[in-house]
Write a structure and sequence with these properties.
Elements: E1 4-8, H1 20-29, E2 34-41, H2 58-71, E3 77-85, H3 92-106, E4 111-115, H4 127-131, H5 135-152, E5 158-159, H6 191-198, H7 208-220, E6 224-228, H8 230-233, H9 243-251, E7 257-260, H10 273-282, E8 287-292, E9 295-300
Parallel strand pairs: 1-2, 2-3, 3-4, 4-5, 5-6, 6-7
Antiparallel strand pairs: 8-9
Helix pairs in contact: 5-7
Length: 301
């Protein structure tokens, strides 16, 4: 049984309005024993998307969540985490790494997620990114940034929602669409053909070697990945990362895997956790990971 949700957001994140107390109440109602709140900290998030900034005051964050820990101590173990937005662009990379190292040295986070949300100073959530990248190139830039970031940032325990970019892949409107100057004709294979070959998202085989390098580097550094069930919430047939990546991680002897819903509202907490448990069992996992004081603890599925 999964008793811990290790990826959740509250109103400290710009994309959530949920009070921390509402998230704690929901965790108790669901019978969870542990809840880790991991709000967004995307230092130097592109100013073009203002007023969104994805930063918060860590003093206020710790004051409020520490008080909440005390209130719920007999019903729920509340852990204080953070999700760092990692960047690999020259200049930005160095500034982010310095800021995050100091932040994690100054504050006693229980758990730190490293994630990629911005590429080439663009947030792929917005169409602008896909206007300058084909699907295949856009996904490759994403995975390449992760590989670089693993070598640059040493303060996180797991890399978050590998392959989440698939949520935002543009859809071809017809089989006769014409490529733009920045999009090769191969990106406009008729959608029905792409579905038969690759499924309705991306071809794992196109990135398998790159993904394997990512996983090997994480394993060698004593870090891991998460099973992020938000893929199910978005209507995908898989969580993040997709099953082939989880299988490859297991084949490479990866052991550290946290489980998180990526909930931004109480009703999405622990989303499809039973399905996630069954998936991990089917791949040969018998334990999942939680963190206290950034130290791994393994719990039975």
């Amino acid at each position: 049984m999964i008793i811990a949700d290790y990826h959740t957001h509250t109103a400290f994140s710009d994309d959530s309005k949920a009070p921390p107390k509402a998230m704690a109440d929901q965790a108790v109602a669901l019978g969870l024993k542990m809840l880790c709140i991991t709000d967004h900290m995307d230092y130097l998030y592109p100013k073009k998307y203002a007023p969104t900034s994805f930063v918060f005051d860590p003093d206020i964050y710790f004051t409020e969540l520490t008080a909440l820990k005390e209130i719920y101590k007999d019903r729920l173990e509340l852990l204080i985490g953070i999700e760092l937005g990692l960047r690999n662009e020259p200049g930005t990379r160095e500034a982010c790494a310095e800021y995050y190292r100091k932040l994690c040295a100054d504050y006693p986070f229980d758990f730190v997620i490293g994630s990629t949300h911005v590429l080439n100073d663009l947030d792929p959530y917005y169409p602008e990114y896909w206007e300058t990248h084909s699907k295949k190139a856009g996904m490759r830039v994403y995975f390449e940034s992760i590989l670089e970031n693993i070598g640059t940032y040493d303060m996180f325990q797991i890399y978050g929602h590998l392959d989440y970019l698939v949520r935002y892949l543009p859809k071809e409107s017809s089989a006769n669409a014409s490529p733009s100057a920045t999009q090769p004709a191969s990106a406009f294979v008729p959608s029905d053909t792409r579905d038969r070959i690759c499924g309705k998202d991306y071809c794992f085989s196109d990135y398998k070697e790159l993904i394997a390098e990512i996983l090997k580097k994480l394993i060698a550094s004593g870090r891991g990945i998460e099973l992020n069930t938000s893929g199910y919430k978005y209507g995908l047939p898989f969580a993040h990362p997709r099953t082939q990546i989880l299988k490859l991680y297991r084949e490479l002897h990866g052991e550290i895997i946290t489980i998180g819903s990526d909930a931004h509202t109480p009703n999405h907490m622990a989303y499809d956790f039973l399905r996630a448990r069954d998936l991990l069992f089917s791949l040969g996992f018998s334990y999942y990971t939680v963190y206290r004081g950034r130290k791994a603890v393994f719990l039975p599925l």
